[in-house]
């Protein structure tokens, strides 16, 4: 079973981290949201304290393992809040296990699959990860942040680097290969009549938000928020993130 933490009482919020992260990224928010909700934070397969036995951790495998935890905890309904890869997992849960979904929050994520170029890029970095993972982390983490915010967020960048370095390399490769295989899940927006909150960064160099926003249907249950940041909105614009999330849940 995946490693998880649970705190607070009330309606359940499930926080799912992104690629090369772990559940500790949500630590700054747990004390606040656990005052009004039950908070479940999870280390996805091959990240943090969760092992992996798979060479490829598909998004569907990750979703299934998250649901296993909820069933173990007797949680039948939750709001899923996913950053990047965690957003892919949240959408997969909404697709495959809609009965568990109250609301969905996508943070710097997308419903679209990898482009051909992105798929090739993911394969190309695998040898680098095995050869010099620490270099890969040191180079890639700063790219997640908006250029103009980097001088203000040195501590956050260093924290994210350390979290990334603590992950097992086989888990990182398995997740890379899994993300590469994920399908288009835009249909979930059309088929699932539950509240969706989409938080995009206008300076996100990882997600093509312009392309993503062209496929999001205009529906009353879907809310889009754009923040002046890169790929880690919850770190770059923490106060705004809290405000937006609080009003949605």
List keywords for this structure.
single chain; 249 residues; alpha/beta; Rossmann fold; globular
Number of helices: 11
Helical fraction equals: 40-55%
Strand order in the largest sheet: 1-3-2-4-5-6-7
Largest beta-sheet characterization? 7 strands, mixed
Compact overview of the structure:
With 249 residues, the protein is α/β, with parallel strands linked by helices. It is 42% helix and 16% strand.
Structure write-up:
With 249 residues, the chain is an alpha/beta fold. It has a single domain, classed as 3-Layer(aba) Sandwich (Rossmann fold), CATH 3.40.50. It contains eleven helices and seven strands. The protein has a seven-stranded mixed β-sheet, with helices on both faces. Helix 2 packs across helix 3 and helix 4 runs antiparallel to helix 7. It is globular, with a radius of gyration of 17 Å. Keywords: Hydrolase. This is Alpha/beta fold hydrolase. Pfam families: Abhydrolase_1.
Give a topology summary.
Layout: E1 4-7, E2 12-16, H1 30-33, E3 38-42, H2 59-72, E4 78-83, H3 85-96, E5 101-107, H4 116-131, H5 133-140, H6 154-165, H7 169-180, H8 187-191, E6 196-201, H9 209-215, E7 222-227, H10 233-236, H11 238-248
Parallel strand pairs: 2-3, 2-4, 4-5, 5-6, 6-7
Antiparallel strand pairs: 1-3
Helix pairs in contact: 2-3, 4-5, 4-7
